[in-house]
Write a structure and sequence with these properties.
Blueprint lengths: L10 H22 L7 H11 L14 H10 L7 H28 L2 H12 L2 H5 L7 H21 L2 H17 L4 H16 L5 H14 L1 H14 L2 H10 L4 H4 L6 H14 L7 H12 L3 H19 L11 H21 L5 H9 L2 H14 L15 H6 L8 H12 L5 E3 L5 H9 L8 E3 L16 H7 L2 E3 L15 E6 L2 E6 L1
Parallel strand pairs: 1-2, 1-3
Antiparallel strand pairs: 3-5, 4-5
Helix pairs in contact: 1-4, 2-4, 2-22, 3-4, 4-5, 4-7, 5-17, 5-18, 7-8, 8-10, 8-11, 9-16, 11-12, 15-16, 15-17, 16-17, 21-22
Length: about 500
């Protein structure tokens, strides 16, 4: 039993610590979350919640029904404007994830200081914090993952099958939120096979677990059944559930370029710009010694490797978000390493030094945009978006007071002529649709995009484009190739009109 940094293992102490961490994380994320509409996928989430849409248009793997059920319920709470309520949902879910990590570590290591170091390491890591400040689904997955590991820890200590029942149900819920949960599912399945082979659990237990897992995953299963009935094609639905629309090659990618490797390493460094990351290697070396069962340590290591491999070779543009589960396990290992170091070193101030080093991430994020510009680090972007400095927007996780997306949408709608059409890409369409639908501004203007369109929008295709150009003013959000329709490329010149561009027939 480690003495240094430990406190008596009582339920009151643990409960008080859990509540303190939950409140502190909630204050941080509520204070730094976006105040209104946002860009890109997060804006799509706001748009879908507004329309009570739990399915989406990008395939079942990107439906995330559990998150939308929670966010749709939260939108009816009369607190601020609609977009803020959706943003607040993610902020509070993220605080829950940090508190669950603290609880896992406190129950496992029986020491408060290492648990606090682990919680701080995750809470202040760049990508997790960034996704706590805007509406996203990843941090709900992490709250459920830590809940799963708490349950697994209790089973390791007690060997009671009821804990496995709870594990099955929570992992089912996690699947209903995000397919990332299939990675821990594989680890748990291997464990169950081993336990069944050793006759520690019976077929009756496995059947009960399968039922509870299916019960937890019910929102996702509902969408699958609905899709099968609509399509009449079982295998197409299964492909949609596994990969979404058009993401199969990315999910199954096994090739790596040097640019991807470089970018991945930069994002990983940004998340742990502190010497504390070295404690993770100490944690790995001590993991089996600290674990109540060897298989518990093996699952932690398997999750570390599988999450890293999946994210590292993933080839989508925003793959940095898929490193969040890996960062979660690294934070667990940093806590385990802290516990090991403190148990061998009795200097009372060492723990405080480690805690202080956790805070180095904040000045690192303040400096990161300036350093990136000074070093001329390529961002990979092909265009600029009004009121969004790329380096600041992506390298600083907080969104306090950021109104860039709403400002762009208001100006674009002010510029558009009566009855105009604005063709928008998936980054800029969400705030445009938000301002038009939620704030009822310029409903005469028709916004068309791949993620949604204004009510009564005209068809925009090869057969209608010439007629539309003759009858209406047509605008696009960018003149960079790939960000406006090919239909307009040979027909029109694009002339700047404030923050957007008007398509003028040649």
């Amino acid at each position: 039993m480690v003495k240094t940094g430990s406190s008596p293992m009582t339920s009151d102490n643990i409960r008080a610590g859990y509540i303190a961490v939950l409140v502190a994380a909630a204050v941080l994320y509520v204070a730094t979350c976006a105040p209104g509409p946002v860009w890109q996928d997060s804006g799509v989430i706001q748009y879908r919640v507004w329309h009570n849409d739990i399915a989406g248009r990008l395939g079942l793997a990107l439906s995330h029904p559990l998150f939308y059920i929670i966010a749709i319920a939260a939108k009816y709470i009369p607190l601020g404007e609609f977009a803020y309520r959706v943003n607040l949902t993610t902020a509070l879910v993220s605080a829950l994830a940090v508190a669950n990590l603290f609880l896992l570590l406190r129950l496992w290591l029986k020491s408060t200081l290492p648990a606090l170091v682990g919680a701080l390491s995750l809470a202040l890591s760049h990508t997790f914090w960034r996704h706590a400040a805007i509406p996203e689904t990843y941090n709900l997955s992490m709250a459920l993952l830590f809940f799963e590991l708490i349950i697994l820890l209790q089973y390791a200590k007690t060997a009671r099958p009821t804990w496995l029942y709870a594990l099955a149900f929570v992992n089912g819920l996690a699947i209903a939120n995000h397919m990332l949960a299939s990675i821990p599912f594989i680890c748990y399945l291997v464990l169950l096979v081993a336990l069944a082979a050793q006759k520690r659990i019976s077929a009756k237990h496995l059947v009960a677990m399968a039922f509870l897992w299916a019960l937890g995953a019910l929102p996702f299963e509902y969408l699958i059944v609905k899709d099968i009935l609509q399509r009449g094609d079982f295998w197409s639905t299964m492909a949609s559930a596994a990969f979404g629309k058009g993401y199969k090659a990315d999910v199954l990618n096994i090739s790596l370029s040097m640019s991807i490797v470089k970018e991945n390493l930069m994002w990983m460094t940004l998340n742990f710009p502190t010497p504390n990351v070295l404690l993770a290697f100490v944690g790995i070396s001590a993991l089996h010694r600290l674990s109540p069962k060897r298989w518990f340590a093996r699952i932690i290591l398997a999750l570390l490797v599988l999450f890293l491999v999946f994210a590292f070779r993933y080839s989508i543009v925003d793959r940095y978000a898929f490193f969040i589960p890996f960062y979660c396990i690294v934070s667990v290992l940093i806590a385990a390493g802290t516990h090991r170091v403190l148990s061998r070193n009795r200097r009372s101030n060492l723990g405080l030094v480690i805690v202080a080093l956790c805070l180095l991430t904040v000045p690192a994020y303040i400096a990161a945009p300036k350093v990136a510009k000074w070093l001329e680090i390529s961002s990979g972007r092909t265009r600029e978006i009004p009121y969004r400095d790329y380096y600041t927007y992506f390298l600083r996780p907080w969104r306090t007071g950021y109104h860039g997306a709403e400002r762009f949408a208001n100006e674009a709608l002010d510029i558009a002529k009566p009855g105009a059409v604005i063709w928008a890409d998936t980054t800029t369409a969400p705030p445009l649709l938000y301002v038009q639908e939620v704030k009822a501004k310029r409903t005469d203007v028709k916004i068309i995009s791949d993620i949604g369109e204004s009510a009564g929008s005209p068809k925009f295709n090869e057969g209608t484009v010439d007629k539309l150009l003759a009858e209406r003013a047509i605008y696009v959000v960018s003149r960079v190739e790939g960000y406006y329709p090919k239909l307009l490329r040979d027909r029109c010149d694009l002339e700047a009109a404030g923050v957007i561009y008007r398509a003028v027939p040649k």
